[in-house]
Amino acid sequence: MTERNEALVIGAGVAGLTTAVCLAERGFTVRVVAERPPRETTSAVAGAIIGGPAIADETEAEAKFAPTAITRPWHQASLAEFTALAKQPDSGVRLTRGRLANRQAAVGHEWAAHLPGYTPCGEEESGGFPVAFRVELPIVDMPVYLEYLASRVTAAGGSVEVGVVDSLEAAAAEAPLVVNCTGVGARALADDPKVFPVRGQHVIVENPGIDEFFFEQNPGPNSTSYFPHGRRLVCGGTAEREVWSMEPDPARTEEILARCIAVEPRIAGAAVTGVEVGLRASRPQTRLEVEPVGSARVIHNYGHGGIAVGLSWGCAQDVLRLALGGATAEVVS
After folding, report:
1. How far apart, in whole angstroms, are the C-alpha atoms of residue 326 and residue 42?
2. Domain range for residue 293?
3. Is residue 329 part of a domain?
4. What's 204's domain CATH number?
5. How far is Cα 228 from Cα 47, in angstroms, rounded to an integer?
């Protein structure tokens, strides 16, 4: 017979592991079960920058250049957590100066004036974009960070296991609390046709000495970004709606490198060390709500699109509140 504080978290990406940390460190006995280990999830290939614009669906024609009323609390909570984590050298998180840019000249950036280190860029340093400014934000070396989160789960008495969960009913038979953090897998597991993949591809090169990030805010199938993580430079990116292929596309690789080189010529001589592909779990709205299944409560936490890392702590904290029987200010379905 299971104890009432037992929790089964399905998924070992950033949403699942962050949720597991919040539950385990609050006294729940947590098992994380996922088809792939943390370093093989889509989260592992993310950029990732925290506190920039909230672009929940990178394929939509209308850009969301600032956090929406729905996601703002999740962003604020996550930015606070990541800023604190930047003080821990083993976390993979660090505060980094860099540029946010936009190809639409009419778009203002007053919303960003409160960000740390905010400084508008002159034409000569805008990377060829009509709008650009420098800020100091946390960026995350995701493979390191996911291992850090997993270590916090196990340190709190939990476990992270590779396995298959066939159905929510089967999960509900194992624990009184189940948290569904399966990303694109929720399309089948939760029978949710609103979930769709947005394929992303990054190119990894040897860092030629770059210590600032660059991130283009524009939604759409192509955008320019690069993030320095020690000897690695993660160059991006793409956002291909409803594409399920996990195979690297050589043509996309060349396009990504060309865009990044146009902003930072030093990348032209950098050796390519890898090409990574992931499927962002997109949805018209993030799903964070409780569903009774059998005698268990299932809390859904998926559909974060291209900003799963930036929403992770805020969403996980709301999952914890729901797990403890409380209400959350933003339950989106």
Report:
1. 31
2. 6-323
3. no
4. 3.40.50.720
5. 9
Own/partner pairs, 35-40, CB within 8 angstroms, 24+ separation: 35/162, 35/163, 35/164, 35/185, 36/12, 36/162, 37/12, 37/160, 37/162, 38/12, 38/13, 38/146, 38/147, 38/149, 38/150, 38/160, 39/143, 39/146, 39/147
Write out the E strands in 191-269: 196-206, 213-216, 222-229, 232-238, 240-241
Examine residue 311 and state whether it is found in any structural domain, yes or no: yes
Whether residue 216 is contained in a domain is answered as yes
Q: How large is the angle between the packed helices 308-323 and 72-85, nearest 10 degrees? A: 100
Instruction: Tally the domains of the chain.
Output: 1
pLDDT, tens digit (0-9, with 9 covering 90-100), for 94-122: 999 999 998 886 665 666 778 889 999 99
Find out whether 282 and 269 touch, Cβ atoms under 8 Å.
Answer: no
Within a domain: residue 276?
yes
51: pLDDT confidence band, cut at 50, 70 and 90? confident
- Cα dihedral 300, 302, 307, 312, rounded to 10, equals 40
DSSP state letters, 77-142: HHHHHHHHHTT-TTSSEEEEEEEEEES-TT---GGGTTSTT-EEPPGGGSTT-SEEEEEEEEEE-H
Q: Which residues contact 2 (CB under 8 A, 6 or more apart)?
A: 174, 175, 176
The DSSP 8-state label assigned to residue 71 in this structure reads T
State pTM to two decimals.
0.91
CA distances (Å), origin 293, targets 93, 169, 170, 190, 287: 37, 6, 10, 11, 16
